[in-house]
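Our collaborator T.R. sent over the components below with a one-line note: 'Predict the complex.' Nothing else. No constraints on interfaces, no templates requested, no preferences about which chain binds where. So this is a plain run: every listed entity goes in together, and whatever single assembly comes back becomes the starting point for the next discussion.
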Amino acid sequence: METRDIAGTSLAFDADGNLANLSDWNEEIAAALAQEEGIDALTDRHWIVLNFMRKEYQENGDAPSIRKLTKQSGVDTKELYALFPKGPAKKAARIAGLPKPKGCI
Amino acid sequence: MKNLVILGAGTAGTMMLNKMHAMLDSSQWQLTIVDQYETHYYQPGFLFIPFGIYSRKDVIKPKRDFFPAGTNVIVSGIDRIEANENRVLLANGQVLPYDLLIVATGAKIVPEEIEGLKDSLWQKDIFDYYTIEGACGLAERFRHWEGGKLVLNVAEMPIKCPVAPLEFVFLADWWFTEQGIRDKVDIHYVTPLPGAFTKPRASSILGDFLDKKNIHLTAEFNIARVDNEEKKIVSWDETEIPFDILVSIPTNMGDEMVERSGLGDELRFIPTDKHTLQSDAHENIFVIGDATNLPSSKAGSVAHFQADILTENILSYIEGRPLRSTFDGHANCFIESGFGKGILIDFNYDTEPLPGKFPLPGVGPFSLLEETEMNHYGKIMFRWMYWNFLLRGKELPIESHMSMAGKRM
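Returned assembly:
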């Protein structure tokens, strides 16, 4: 557990570097976390994925895997990798303020 | 008479059958095991086949040799579990009611999940070694190969035995050196992970081994397709890696039966309590080995440690007591590293593989995260232990829960 200042707020992070408390999250923090992941600006397409992730997490208690994103988010695999380079499920979960998906070992 | 039904007679299912047979009163419980195949494969041995160390005959035995007397053995495919009715429908039309069900249907490779993988070059220049056909086909191909680009690609996690791809490239380095053509073979390890392995400290140490052995590493490569014409693999972000021979570890998934039963996740793995091994959805269904969605390695050693825990929990369940025995994610893997040496790692959910010593009464200690001849003998000895002790559910001198003894922080 570490504490860092993000977007002017002092926030706690878990061992994977994801937000420790979901309730700390807001859109401004998402933008700052996106910058850390090398994403300069969050577009509407990014937000489709992020909102889907947050909804899934609230319903199922786990952030969705890349397979679930591809099948159900409305954004295909190719675009997911363009939006969140290298690791869409892992990066989008982090930006959405969620813990790392259980499927990402 | 009550019915305990085990689906799948691989490593986990066979161990559980033997343990349940030893623990349960045969006048009260009928044990049934179902599997579509009659041959048991020693899957850790597949790794050695491409390099001519083992052949087919070294890794097979009839499954029936490992079933205790009095077991109702059914050779049939499984259509589906009807969990609300407490019964299993078999492909041969039989209906099996159960009081308690153990699902041990494992995981398997599904090359069809990657575009172009199972295409014109499949079994010609593209091979897997997680099946007996793939391993034997690759052995034949290597025997006549004069060198070029050898690419090993892990398609996506999780896979069975996450150290096996590393062992493969270590052994390839040794084998092509023995053949006198190592200077003509470019070995390239391509993985979706951020480094050589899933856990940070082991990843860094194993990454150094890759360097030392002149094996090229490309990390964070997420394969989108295989181009059979131009012989290259292409990632989702359009990075291309050319190959002459591609050794693929395709997507691993659970059995189709799991999907037909409506019990699986996107990869057909069954959501299971990571400590008790009870299925999340039904209290009289327990899941063991590769069939679970647990965040532990999919490996025989893990199934072995789980079997001890599951045996206790099933006895508790039958007697109406709370499930107290908890699995800690313990895995213990000998990594064959070539030139008669091996590396040992030992870890669980919370503790990543650490360097140090691994004590083992009578034979040990083994060195952790170091290359030694002793570790190689541990690996070779394991096949004998597997057939004679592990599958038969006999005690091994190794604890189900991970121990910190000998490990360096």
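Summary for T.R.: Helices of chain B lie at 11-23, 132-143, 164-178, 200-212, 256-260, 300-318, 373-390.
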